[in-house]
């Protein structure tokens, strides 16, 4: 397939006439075409398409269809049908009223091409640049970020189901790619009876002993299949099939293989004593290698991904020119969308998000986040780059601080020049040891046992067996940043200021209502990132459309009928 970069064509005269008659007040699709046509150009997609072969459909037009699809939460078939029967969509695409559209599978192939070439954010970034040029977003101001969970597009599997379904997935792939080779390695009839239907926990034996035996059978079959695929005489490409490679990984993660006294292989289900891999490495499904199990608090436990949305939250006066004329306020627009697997903590996303914002010229002056995002290093680094992180930092977790009794770190006086710490009793520390804790620089302060034993405040200061106090500090600059942040967040001024962050919860709910952002449509992290980038783009055009037409930020709330009746009676 090749591409001839032509962009969106001119709207045919008849299409214009019918669309204007059918939608005298316009529609979302019509206004997007009229105001944002340059966003959906073909040139940014040139690297994903060849220059030889039959010309394909315009990637700019397909990206517009995809954005409208997400804005209306449609399936591929529904979106393809809308391109045929919806007059405003025909207007947006610039096609004749008699145009027969395209097959729904085109959208799937288009997304795959974007994901394979790392172009998931092309349309989102172009719309953000357009909004920058129009003065709707800019560097400085205030922005806020929050995350939410995303459920994967695969079935939840327990460890026993995962072991069996991984064998089944590999067999299904080999039955298509290497049927002759597979028939020479296994008893096809026996395996078809065992792995023909999908592995379902509801149909497994009820007793634990029989389930353990079934797990052993799954492990033996997986081992035999991997042994055949990695044999010296096996075709090299067999082991490169994704399902076969994942089967090998699942086998290592779910089973242990040992040799008995006779030299035979003993395969056993792996338990906690045998070493279960951590969550960020442990596969959750043979059909989605990127989905991971994660938990948040005591109530939320999911398999999938996590999305971080960043939006502007500064209502500035309109300039009276461009697309924002006449509304009086600026719309809150999404400036970044960041997707990870479910096991990545929020603090790991802070630096990439701020880097992207700076890269696209929309770095905020104040960045509002919840307590999962900051660390002393991040707060200090952001401040040096001109970004103030308005976020609650973790409090002192020492025994004294948690109990609100005795002497916590704030009760000690630190002399950074002499490298000594003075306790509330006036005694000085005996050791100052720079160390590495969890890969970060720290300082461990130790008081002498003889000094602490004779102190009258020992019971208020330490409960350690040696009877001496120890402190763990960050380097001076980081320690001072944490101390200032902890002191500031206790003030009413800071609390009132931080209340602005809560508005991002409404953005997540809007994204859920409009685009279903908490449910992954596709498998694999690249395609889920693409889904979220198009979801954020769709949310932005919905907000821009409201900004162009109704100015939702400055409209007054309509009174209810009961309130109007009350007004009449009181008059």
Tally of helical segments: 22
Average pLDDT taken over every residue: 88
Class based on secondary structure composition and strand pairing: alpha+beta
What is the alpha-carbon Rg in Å?
A: 30 Å
Distance between the termini: 73 Å
Label the overall shape: flat
How would a textbook summarize the main sheet? 6 strands, mixed
In terms of per-residue confidence, which ranges show pLDDT below 50 for 5 or more consecutive residues? Answer: 316-327
Helix content: 40-55%
Annotation, overall tally of beta strands:
13
Strand percent estimate: 5-15%
Describe this structure in words.
With 571 residues, the protein is α+β, with helices and mostly antiparallel strands. It has 22 helices and 13 strands. The strands form 4 sheets. Strands 1, 4, 5, 6, 7 and 8 form a 6-stranded mixed β-sheet that branches. It has a 3-stranded antiparallel β-sheet with strand order 11-12-13, with no helix packed on it. Helix 3 packs across helix 21, helix 4 packs across helix 5 and helix 14 crosses helix 18. The N and C termini lie far apart (73 Å).
